[in-house]
Design brief:
About 35% of the residues lie in helices and about 20% in strands. By secondary structure, it is of the alpha+beta class. It folds into four domains: about 20-220, Histidine kinase-like ATPase, C-terminal domain (Heat Shock Protein 90); about 225-385, 2-Layer Sandwich (Ribosomal Protein S5, domain 2), CATH 3.30.230.10; about 405-535, Rossmann fold (3-Layer(aba) Sandwich); about 535-570, no CATH class. The longest helix has 30 residues, at about 370-395. The radius of gyration is 27 Å and the shape is flat. The relative contact order is 0.08. It binds 3-[3-(1H-pyrrolo[2,3-b]pyridin-5-yl)phenyl]propanoic acid. 3-[3-(1H-pyrrolo[2,3-b]pyridin-5-yl)phenyl]propanoic acid binds next to helix 3.
Amino acid sequence: MAAGNGSYSGKDIQVLEGLEAVRKRPGMYIGSTGPKGLHHLVYEVVDNSVDEALAGFCTAIEVVIHADGSVTVVDNGRGIPVDNVPKYRKPAVEVVLTVLHAGGKFGGEGYKVSGGLHGVGVSVVNALSKRLEVEVKRDGKIWRQSFERGKPTGPLQVVGKSKATGTTITFWPDPEVFETTEFSWDTLATRLRETAFLNKNLKIVLVDERELEPRREEFRYAGGIVDFVRYLNEKREPLHAKPIFFETEGPEGALEVAMQWTTGYTETVLAFANNINTHEGGTHLEGFKNALTRTINDYARKAGLLKEKDENLAGEDIREGLTAVISVKLREPQFEGQTKTKLGNTEMRSFVQTAVTQALADYLEEHPKPARLIVTKAMQAAKARAAARKARELTRRKGLLESTTLPGKLADCSIREAELTEIFLVEGDSAGGSAKQARDRSFQAILPLRGKILNVEKANINRALSSEEIQALITALGTGVADDFDIEQARYHKAIIMTDADVDGSHIRCLILTFFYRYMREMIERGYVYIAQPPLYKVSTGKKHEYAYNDKQLQEILARLPEGTKYTIQRYKGLGEMNPEQLWETTMDPERRTLLRVTLDDALAAEEAFTDLMGEQVEPRKEFIQRHAKNVRFLDV
Ligand code: 0RA
């Protein structure tokens, strides 16, 4: 396929595998059949449109969530080819939608890079949709075909004329496959915004028709990843006015970097390969970090800021307060790691390292003022870290952080095997008291946390560690913290946050999550952190009662009641309103409760939410709390 001149024809499409497997084991192709997998369907279609954009043929993509739960993705690319594929004696568009990996871009030539996560292709979306409709505008005509659960319901047909080109795909996710088929505006908006940042000038529109008044947002960034960094730093205070930007191309691929230090303590370095967020890092990120550490140290010495006797600055001190986006594009990316989001191509390490060293050295040379600020900040970070280490050694000697001296208010469980046990982090002493009575003490531990635990985003590690609530949390969990963190020492494999269903409760939940995110990230990565789901309502009819965990369930329960039944509804405002038995049967009993597992799926969304809520500026925090008062959905839980 010669993507350059559009001389594509059906015979170029390669066939790798049949589709049957997809419906049998959907998780293999889209990760899960939960909300994550559901949203993956949209990304898969959009990524195909983005590929058209990367190839230079598409400038706009629109994603519409319809009232009936379907999603339409429209692009103005070339349109999926409609000519016959000899091997199948079928139009290419039908092959693309019914044969796994028949994307037409697996032959090495063709698209320079391909964005689709594992390149599974739109056929996977088709297989997992109860219905799918495709419309192609191409060669002056409009073509249309429909499918049910991956199978055509009729042949490709011409339905009209058009001078335009492009592809429109509408799909209805199959409720037989997915645990939920409800799309989240926030999840889609976050991902599409990110895609727009990574593809300079590409216009992506998201529309939600489920509301009475349709919601619409347009993402288009002339500055690309520089705008991305500005966006991430919107609620932070930059150390230098303009983000540093550079790009380069070589036989290995293409590289773009945007970076800006802030006065804060948070390191936010996002790395992408072919538009995929490589959460687990990889060679490109290693190359970047190596270059950064060396170049800043070299400069600090040359400028006389670091003396001969001084030790080199550590990478983490240099990256304190840094926000950076690294984007590489390469021909044959190798994705490794647990979630296949770690770039493995070895040539990328030296490619990125060389490019960043050169560009950053030039920048520092040409911008002495920001350069000095950056080095000074790193030197301060190094000092603070040395002081924190000393403080930790002191507290350790005093036994404060040792797991042998468990906090007084912890009601521990009797079983010692961490895999079998759980700890409830409970808001307030009174709810803590109920939870202690309600629990199964063999495997459930209770740690009441009083009031608002220290705001760790604002405090550096030194101060955070001296907070009593935080110390209790660390000792109870047994893992140590930050540099000393050791997941193997975890005393429980479930840490369950249990807070009231009100604004204060969601604030406290956010504080605890921030703490995990900053200092015990691996607890989240391992899937050890959960959020308890207490009910919102109790519906009583005589002696019987039922619980509702959301408004929809409440309506369902009421609708199910026989005509004329008398009932009362109690709305729970806090955990304290439930007696121990109720707390047990609704929220703590593993047989009956639902837990939300916290994942770090979307680093951007998490960063954003934590910064919104915890950062220095008051306005965004207020706004965040108002927007998310009812359900904190910023993490993909
Ligand atoms: C196969 C080959 C070509 C384009 C596409 C597929 C294609 C797929 C999708 C899915 C959504 N939008 C899309 N746009 C294009 C190459 C076409 C050519 O060479 O003319």
